Amino acid sequence: MKDYLPYLLGALVGALIAFAISNLLALQETPQLMLFALLPAVGGALAERLSPHRADRF
């Protein structure tokens, strides 16, 4: 479960940014839907990519 933490945090930040942009620009329907589909996924992917990974040592 710890391995998913950076992705989950990035997705949460992406969703919060999507809420903020949607409210600021008063987006409705399709643009709002696209924003909520893309930003959490992109945020999660970026956070996972940029987070330092620990190497499993045997």
What topology does this entry show?
Elements: H1 5-25, H2 29-50
Helix pairs in contact: 1-2
Descriptive account of the structure:
This protein has helices at 5-25, 29-50. The model has no long low-confidence stretch (mean pLDDT 84). The protein is mainly alpha-helical. Helix 1 packs antiparallel against helix 2. The chain is elongated, with a radius of gyration of 14 Å. Helices cover 74% and strands 0% of the residues.
Which key terms come to mind for this protein?
0% strand, 74% helix, 2 helices, mainly alpha, elongated, 58 residues
Mean pLDDT across the residues is 84
Order of helices and strands: HH
Radius of gyration: 14 Å
Q: How would you classify the helix and strand content by structural class?
A: mainly alpha
Give a short account of the largest sheet. none
Taking pLDDT < 50 over at least 5 consecutive residues as the criterion, the unreliable ranges are none
* Total of DSSP H or I helical runs spanning 4+ residues: 2
Which overall shape is indicated by the principal axes computed on the Cα atoms? Answer: elongated
Instruction: Tally the beta strands.
Output: 0
- What portion of residues belong to β-strands? under 5%
The helical percent reads over 70%
Distance between the termini: 20 Å
What's the short version?
The chain contains 2 helices and no strands. It is elongated. The model has no long low-confidence stretch (mean pLDDT 84).
